[in-house]
Amino acid sequence: MEETLKILVVGTDEVDRMTIRYALTKAGVQMQLSEVDDSNDLFSTLKNSSYDCVFLDYRLLDQDVLTLIQQLHSSEIKVPLVVLTNQEDEQLAIQLIEAGATDYLSKSRISPETLAQVLRNAIRIYRAQMQAALAIQQIRESHEQLISKNQELERQQQQIQKQNLKLLEASQVKSHFLATMTHEFRTPMNAIIGFSQILLRPKCGKLTHGQADMVERILNNGKHLLMLLNEVLDFSKLEAGQLDLKGEIFDVSKVINLVVDEIRSLADAKNLSLLMQTNLQNTLVFNDPVRVKQILINLISNAIKFTDSGEILVEVKELPANRVAIIVRDTGIGIAPKDFKHIFEAFRQVDQSITRKYPGTGLGLAIIDSLVRIMGGKIFLESKLGLGSMFRIELPRQVKLTTVAADTPASQLDSNEVFRSAKNPHHSCSQFSKAQIGYPKFKL
Ligand code: ADP
């Protein structure tokens, strides 16, 4: 052993202590050896100084050694303890180790070799025990830390749940307020629209050119306001899960034709061609015609609004698995991939500035997204800035009125990929970005 060991020998018998001293010296143990001859001295000595090993005689005049070892073991004093017994006694050895001794050695076996060996072993065992105790202590501490972190997390989770509940309540109050207010606004709006229409009828008396112009403006603005109110009302109903589909069998091509005819004047006003291509063997679907019409009006009027020249193409196609695709393409300003998911969020527009060129509430696509999800369908968007956009709605031919579909609103998806369009001459430009929009669980 190269290090100098501090060794304490405790024993009443002077000869025994001398034997140990002699054997250790003979074994070449580098040491600083101290001796005490009673247990009182032992405690004070161990408190004042630390030792690498204590040799303790089993026969102390003033003290029962088993009790002494137990006291030492349960005190703050930690030291390897080798007990020297008078005879080989298995039973006693077990008791000593159980009481807290590190090892024992019969005095009859003391020799320089055995004592040095026992000393080395005792120190090794003691160090291993200390390391194990330290590891256990660290594990206990980290376990306690984990418990307290868990408790903290649980507290935070409960707070978040409470806040969520409050937010939900606030959102419900807001939706209810929106629904009530828009509903209330609609009644006078309908009166304004109705009376302006009556005023414009020739049988109500002839209006001057200026008067007719003013009444027409009242009528158009009233209609526009009513459309905005309807959007807000629909949106608040959808948010509250209160919008039900009224399913019936109808001819989807006819509905598309009707919408295209109704909206054509808007395209004409901008010199845009508005074309329609139907490719359906069976034109009948089971869905809510009012809501399908609403989706179409929104998509086509957006296409017209965001296109300054070129054409709008509305297509309807048969898809496998008894589904139908409605596609609205335009050659307008296009949408950057980074905006794909945002435009499906309520009140979100690519241009959010007050001075924006294109008017609107930013609710149209959010409503379409929710409606398509309720219908168990999907929306795909392909677009390239400056070249145009394509919104493709895929719907089951027969919607399930109690559908529980997938659970991701379009606004939460950001998958987009590059799409090469070779077929469409207006999109002959190289690349279009494409996002596939899913649909969430929604109970009717
Ligand atoms: P709004 O048209 O009332 O602004 P929407 O929810 O219908 O609201 O559309 C959200 C935004 O998506 C629009 O403001 C526009 O920025 C973008 N957008 C929608 N359709 C098109 C389109 N066909 N071409 C270019 N941008 C579009």
DSSP summary: helix tally: 9
Q: Enter the CATH topology name of the largest domain.
A: Heat Shock Protein 90
Mean pLDDT metric: 84
Distinct small-molecule ligands in the complex: adenosine-5'-diphosphate
CA(first)-CA(last) distance = 84 Å
Strand order of the largest sheet: 7-9-10-12-11-14-13
Helical residue percent band: 40-55%
Whole-number total of structural domains? 3
What proportion of the residues form beta strands (DSSP E)? 15-25%
Helix-strand layout with pairing:
Layout: E1 5-10, H1 14-26, E2 31-36, H2 39-48, E3 53-57, H3 65-74, E4 81-85, H4 90-99, E5 103-106, H5 112-200, H6 209-239, E6 248-251, H7 252-269, E7 273-279, E8 284-287, H8 289-305, E9 311-319, E10 323-330, H9 364-374, E11 378-384, E12 388-396, E13 416-420, E14 431-437
Parallel strand pairs: 1-2, 1-3, 3-4, 4-5, 7-9
Antiparallel strand pairs: 6-8, 9-10, 10-12, 11-12, 11-14, 13-14
Bound molecules: adenosine-5'-diphosphate.
Structure description:
With 444 residues, this protein is of the alpha/beta class. The protein folds into three domains: 5-110, Response regulator (Rossmann fold, 3-Layer(aba) Sandwich); 171-239; 248-441, Histidine kinase-like ATPase, C-terminal domain (Heat Shock Protein 90). Helix content is 47%, strand content 19%. It has nine helices and 14 strands. It has helices spanning 14-26, 39-48, 65-74, 90-99, 112-200, 209-239, 252-269, 289-305, 364-374; strands spanning 5-10, 31-36, 53-57, 81-85, 103-106, 248-251, 273-279, 284-287, 311-319, 323-330, 378-384, 388-396, 416-420, 431-437. A seven-stranded mixed sheet has the order 7-9-10-12-11-14-13, covered by helices on one side. Strands 2-1-3-4-5 form a five-stranded parallel sheet, sandwiched between helices. A hairpin with a 3-residue loop joins strand 9 and strand 10. Helix 1 crosses helix 5 and helix 8 (289-305) runs antiparallel to helix 9 (364-374). The chain is rod-shaped, with a radius of gyration of 45 Å. The two termini are 84 Å apart. Residues 403-444 have low confidence and may be disordered. Residues 298, 302-303, 306, 330, 332-333, 335, 343, 349-350, 360-366, 389 line the site of adenosine-5'-diphosphate.
